[in-house]
Write a structure and sequence with these properties.
Helix content: 25-40%
Number of strands: 12
Structural class: alpha+beta
Largest sheet: 7 strands, mixed
Number of helices: 11
Radius of gyration: 24 Å
Distance between the termini: 58 Å
Order of helices and strands: EEHHEEEEHEEHEHEEEHHHHHH
Strand content: 15-25%
Shape: globular
CATH class of the largest domain: Alpha Beta
Length: about 375
């Protein structure tokens, strides 16, 4: 039998007006005739078709109004994929194929494979789950997977942080208190008021991905290190993190500072300045980068914007952004940092602050690196 049976087009939609441009397929075995699931499937396909036909999607047609008031884009699949600051629609990263549809308690779960396929094989971008509320069959609405999947999670509020965590976890008050102390320092330095934040955390990144509705997303399983993302455009803003429990300060710094300087070129540097990276201090990462350069003296970091990780743990760009923040803070304190974070161009920052054109960046940054304290320990 030909493998074409894996990607059978949603034939029942061909008779529905307005579906001529839909590029949604259905996997063998999905029941498209069940009256409970059929309406939800049509609703889902209508939504997917918007990504072909419209630059701006009216999410209020598909998501409850009260959820749309929380953020401009309630569909996390279209904000998280790619990176925490991006807004890459999942359907721009592959073709959707429905592989599962199940009805229970007026909710239909639709599982979709998103990927690319050709004569050499199938390449998976993600396997995602949408949940459709069909309480009112004439007006179905999506349920945000994060809220749906965290219904059994525990909740604990400490000061301005509302923690959400799995039932297997024993809440660590010492870590939560440590996070609050570090955030209070940030607030005092910048004269900021506390921000109410929803903080979701688990042991592994895969648990967070599952919470968001991913069965699989490209890269899953490759990284066992602490990781996190800050969703600053939600009300209240959210942190989604793993590996550090109640004390992932780095992502909270993004919420406080990114809202003031949304276009700064030192976004990761200031987050590292106050919160380290992946659970380690800035000095720890600087020492690792210094040792790397001792073994690789010809490495050139003149273009930090395109430079990727040295390895899975230390990102040279983060380190050098931190060194710039550290250098300016040592000379002018918070006043200097405010000016530095106002730059939207690294070229301008390096030219104005250090008189360095791009060809000179590497020399300047390396000189900062080898002036930092030699000994360091994890945060």
């Amino acid at each position: 039998m030909s493998c074409n049976f894996l990607l059978v087009f949603f034939a029942f939609l061909s008779s529905v007006a307005g579906y001529s441009q839909i590029n949604v397929a259905v996997n063998m075995g999905v029941d498209t005739l069940n009256p409970k699931t059929r309406g939800a499937l049509e609703f889902y396909c209508r939504y997917v078709s918007e990504f072909d036909n419209s630059i701006h999607i009216d999410y209020s047609k598909y998501w409850p109004k009260e959820k749309c008031s929380l953020t401009e884009v309630p569909d996390i699949f279209n904000t998280k994929f790619g990176n925490g600051h991006g807004s890459v629609p999942i359907y721009n990263c592959g073709l959707p194929t429905i592989i599962y549809a199940k009805w229970r308690n007026d909710t239909v779960q639709i599982k979709t494979h998103v990927g690319i396929y050709d004569s050499t094989g199938i390449y998976t971008t993600a396997i995602i789950n949408y949940y459709v509320d069909i309480t009112n069959p004439d007006q179905p609405r999506f349920i945000i997977p994060l809220f749906f999947n965290s219904q059994s999670w525990y909740i604990r509020k400490v000061r301005n942080i509302t923690y959400y965590y799995p039932s297997y976890h024993v809440f660590n008050n010492l870590k939560a208190d440590s996070l609050i102390l570090q955030i209070q320092r940030l607030e005092q330095d910048w004269q900021l008021k506390p921000i109410e934040i929803n903080y979701y955390f688990a042991r592994t990144a895969e648990e967070i991905d599952n919470l968001l509705g991913y069965d699989y997303v490209a890269g899953m399983g490759n990284n066992s290190l602490p990781s996190g993302v800050a969703l600053i455009n939600w009300k209240p803003p959210m942190v989604l993190c793993s590996g550090l429990g109640e004390n992932y300060v780095h992502e909270l710094v993004h919420i406080y500072i990114d809202s003031i300087f949304p276009t700064t070129v030192l976004r990761e540097g200031i987050a590292m300045f106050y919160g380290g990276s992946r659970g380690y201090s800035p000095q720890f990462h600087a020492e690792r980068l210094r040792k790397y350069l001792e073994k690789n003296p010809n490495a050139d970091f003149s273009d930090l914007r395109s430079y990727q990780h040295m390895d899975g743990l230390t990102n040279p760009r983060y380190v050098y952004e931190w060194l710039i923040c550290k250098d300016i803070y040592s000379k002018e304190g918070i006043k200097g940092l405010k000016r530095a974070l106002g730059y939207t161009s690294l070229d301008e920052l390096m030219r104005v602050e250090y008189g360095a054109e791009k060809a000179q960046w590497n020399k300047v940054l390396v000189s900062f690196l080898f002036d930092v304290e030699q000994k360091s320990t994890p945060r």
